[in-house]
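Allow me, if you will, to draw on your knowledge of protein folds for a short while. I have a record of one protein: its chain in single-letter code and its fold written as C-alpha coordinates. Kindly check, if you would, that the fold set down in the C-alpha coordinates agrees with what the sequence suggests. Thank you for your consideration; the sequence and its C-alpha coordinates are set out here:
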Amino acid sequence: MKRTGIFSGSFNPVHIGHLALANWLCEYQELDEVWFLVTPQNPLKKQTELIDDTLRLEMVKKAVGDYPKFIASDFEFHLPKPTYSVHTLQALRDTYPGNSFHFIMGADNWSLIEQWKDARILLNEYPIFIYPRLGYEVSIPACYPNIRKVDAPIIEISSSFIRQSVNEGKDVRFFIPEPIRGYFPGCILHLPL
Protein backbone atom coordinates (compact mmCIF):
# COMPACT_ATOMS: atom_id res chain seq x y z
CA MET A 1 0.00 0.00 0.00
CA LYS A 2 1.33 3.42 -0.96
CA ARG A 3 2.08 5.72 2.01
CA THR A 4 0.78 9.14 1.00
CA GLY A 5 1.26 12.29 3.04
CA ILE A 6 -1.59 14.79 2.80
CA PHE A 7 -0.34 18.35 3.10
CA SER A 8 -3.54 20.37 2.92
CA GLY A 9 -3.38 24.14 3.00
CA SER A 10 -4.09 27.47 1.43
CA PHE A 11 -0.57 27.75 -0.02
CA ASN A 12 -1.22 31.49 -0.22
CA PRO A 13 1.44 31.38 -1.69
CA VAL A 14 3.43 28.15 -1.61
CA HIS A 15 6.99 28.80 -0.38
CA ILE A 16 10.28 26.99 0.16
CA GLY A 17 9.32 26.04 3.72
CA HIS A 18 6.41 23.95 2.41
CA LEU A 19 8.65 22.19 -0.09
CA ALA A 20 11.51 21.56 2.35
CA LEU A 21 9.15 20.07 4.94
CA ALA A 22 7.48 17.78 2.38
CA ASN A 23 10.90 16.68 1.12
CA TRP A 24 12.02 15.89 4.68
CA LEU A 25 8.85 13.88 5.35
CA CYS A 26 9.40 11.79 2.22
CA GLU A 27 13.05 11.10 3.00
CA TYR A 28 12.94 10.69 6.80
CA GLN A 29 9.42 9.42 7.54
CA GLU A 30 9.25 6.87 4.75
CA LEU A 31 6.37 8.47 2.89
CA ASP A 32 6.21 7.39 -0.73
CA GLU A 33 4.78 10.76 -1.77
CA VAL A 34 3.23 13.98 -0.53
CA TRP A 35 0.09 15.42 -2.06
CA PHE A 36 -0.23 19.20 -1.78
CA LEU A 37 -4.01 19.66 -1.48
CA VAL A 38 -4.83 23.26 -2.26
CA THR A 39 -7.73 24.26 -0.01
CA PRO A 40 -10.27 26.52 -1.70
CA GLN A 41 -11.70 27.82 1.59
CA ASN A 42 -10.19 27.22 5.00
CA PRO A 43 -12.99 27.47 7.59
CA LEU A 44 -10.59 29.26 9.97
CA LYS A 45 -9.49 31.93 7.45
CA LYS A 46 -11.24 34.80 5.69
CA GLN A 47 -11.92 34.14 2.01
CA THR A 48 -10.82 37.71 1.14
CA GLU A 49 -7.25 36.85 2.20
CA LEU A 50 -6.85 34.26 -0.53
CA ILE A 51 -5.27 34.51 -3.93
CA ASP A 52 -7.61 32.99 -6.56
CA ASP A 53 -7.97 29.19 -6.11
CA THR A 54 -6.87 28.34 -9.65
CA LEU A 55 -3.82 30.58 -9.43
CA ARG A 56 -2.74 29.04 -6.11
CA LEU A 57 -3.09 25.57 -7.63
CA GLU A 58 -1.08 26.63 -10.69
CA MET A 59 1.67 28.02 -8.45
CA VAL A 60 1.82 24.76 -6.48
CA LYS A 61 2.02 22.76 -9.73
CA LYS A 62 4.91 24.89 -10.94
CA ALA A 63 6.63 24.78 -7.53
CA VAL A 64 6.58 20.97 -7.27
CA GLY A 65 7.56 20.62 -10.93
CA ASP A 66 8.42 17.11 -12.03
CA TYR A 67 9.70 15.89 -8.65
CA PRO A 68 8.20 12.37 -8.57
CA LYS A 69 7.32 12.34 -4.87
CA PHE A 70 5.22 15.54 -4.95
CA ILE A 71 1.74 15.90 -6.42
CA ALA A 72 -0.27 19.14 -6.67
CA SER A 73 -3.94 18.34 -6.17
CA ASP A 74 -7.26 20.11 -6.64
CA PHE A 75 -9.12 17.26 -4.88
CA GLU A 76 -10.72 19.66 -2.37
CA PHE A 77 -12.03 21.88 -5.19
CA HIS A 78 -14.60 19.16 -5.90
CA LEU A 79 -15.85 18.77 -2.33
CA PRO A 80 -18.62 20.77 -0.62
CA LYS A 81 -17.44 24.07 0.83
CA PRO A 82 -16.15 24.86 3.30
CA THR A 83 -13.83 21.87 3.22
CA TYR A 84 -13.02 20.07 6.45
CA SER A 85 -9.97 17.85 6.79
CA VAL A 86 -11.95 14.93 8.17
CA HIS A 87 -14.30 14.96 5.15
CA THR A 88 -11.38 15.30 2.75
CA LEU A 89 -9.60 12.30 4.28
CA GLN A 90 -12.78 10.22 4.20
CA ALA A 91 -13.29 11.09 0.51
CA LEU A 92 -9.63 10.34 -0.28
CA ARG A 93 -9.85 6.95 1.43
CA ASP A 94 -13.01 6.09 -0.55
CA THR A 95 -11.54 7.30 -3.86
CA TYR A 96 -8.04 5.80 -3.48
CA PRO A 97 -8.35 2.57 -1.46
CA GLY A 98 -4.78 1.56 -2.44
CA ASN A 99 -3.27 4.45 -0.47
CA SER A 100 -2.60 4.81 3.23
CA PHE A 101 -3.15 8.51 3.95
CA HIS A 102 -1.06 10.29 6.60
CA PHE A 103 -2.25 13.77 7.50
CA ILE A 104 0.44 16.46 7.96
CA MET A 105 -0.16 19.35 10.36
CA GLY A 106 1.90 21.95 12.16
CA ALA A 107 2.17 22.25 15.93
CA ASP A 108 0.25 25.54 15.64
CA ASN A 109 -2.75 23.70 14.19
CA TRP A 110 -2.37 20.87 16.71
CA SER A 111 -2.92 23.46 19.46
CA LEU A 112 -6.32 24.24 17.87
CA ILE A 113 -7.36 20.65 17.08
CA GLU A 114 -10.36 20.77 19.43
CA GLN A 115 -11.86 23.47 17.16
CA TRP A 116 -11.66 21.22 14.08
CA LYS A 117 -14.75 19.58 12.65
CA ASP A 118 -15.15 16.01 13.96
CA ALA A 119 -11.72 16.15 15.58
CA ARG A 120 -12.21 12.82 17.39
CA ILE A 121 -12.80 10.98 14.10
CA LEU A 122 -9.69 12.58 12.60
CA LEU A 123 -7.59 11.68 15.65
CA ASN A 124 -8.83 8.10 15.91
CA GLU A 125 -8.94 7.06 12.27
CA TYR A 126 -5.95 8.64 10.51
CA PRO A 127 -2.19 8.63 11.06
CA ILE A 128 -1.04 12.20 11.70
CA PHE A 129 2.44 13.71 11.52
CA ILE A 130 2.84 16.89 13.58
CA TYR A 131 5.79 19.05 12.60
CA PRO A 132 7.33 21.59 15.00
CA ARG A 133 6.63 25.32 15.01
CA LEU A 134 8.40 27.84 17.23
CA GLY A 135 6.46 28.66 20.37
CA TYR A 136 4.21 25.58 20.27
CA GLU A 137 4.62 22.57 22.53
CA VAL A 138 3.22 19.27 21.33
CA SER A 139 1.69 16.88 23.83
CA ILE A 140 0.01 13.80 22.40
CA PRO A 141 -2.28 11.76 24.67
CA ALA A 142 -1.32 8.07 24.84
CA CYS A 143 -4.78 7.11 23.56
CA TYR A 144 -3.73 8.28 20.06
CA PRO A 145 -0.95 5.88 19.00
CA ASN A 146 -1.31 6.85 15.31
CA ILE A 147 -0.26 10.47 15.98
CA ARG A 148 3.45 11.31 15.95
CA LYS A 149 5.46 14.43 16.48
CA VAL A 150 8.26 14.44 13.91
CA ASP A 151 11.62 16.13 14.36
CA ALA A 152 11.53 17.98 11.07
CA PRO A 153 13.75 21.05 10.78
CA ILE A 154 11.98 24.20 11.95
CA ILE A 155 11.63 26.56 9.00
CA GLU A 156 9.81 29.65 10.20
CA ILE A 157 8.63 31.07 6.89
CA SER A 158 4.95 31.79 6.46
CA SER A 159 2.79 32.85 3.55
CA SER A 160 1.59 35.86 5.55
CA PHE A 161 5.23 36.93 6.10
CA ILE A 162 5.82 36.72 2.34
CA ARG A 163 2.64 38.69 1.54
CA GLN A 164 3.53 41.36 4.08
CA SER A 165 7.10 41.59 2.80
CA VAL A 166 5.95 42.02 -0.80
CA ASN A 167 3.46 44.69 0.27
CA GLU A 168 6.36 46.50 1.97
CA GLY A 169 8.42 46.36 -1.22
CA LYS A 170 10.91 43.77 0.08
CA ASP A 171 12.72 41.44 -2.29
CA VAL A 172 11.89 37.94 -1.01
CA ARG A 173 12.70 36.03 -4.17
CA PHE A 174 14.67 33.32 -2.36
CA PHE A 175 11.74 32.47 -0.07
CA ILE A 176 9.63 31.59 -3.11
CA PRO A 177 10.31 28.63 -5.45
CA GLU A 178 12.01 29.88 -8.61
CA PRO A 179 9.31 28.61 -11.03
CA ILE A 180 6.63 30.85 -9.47
CA ARG A 181 8.60 34.06 -8.97
CA GLY A 182 7.13 35.52 -12.14
CA TYR A 183 3.58 35.02 -10.87
CA PHE A 184 4.14 36.25 -7.48
CA PRO A 185 4.26 39.96 -6.70
CA GLY A 186 1.33 41.02 -8.87
CA CYS A 187 -1.03 38.38 -7.57
CA ILE A 188 -0.68 39.13 -3.87
CA LEU A 189 0.07 42.81 -3.68
CA HIS A 190 -2.49 44.62 -1.54
CA LEU A 191 -4.19 41.50 -0.18
CA PRO A 192 -5.22 41.92 3.46
CA LEU A 193 -2.70 40.39 5.86
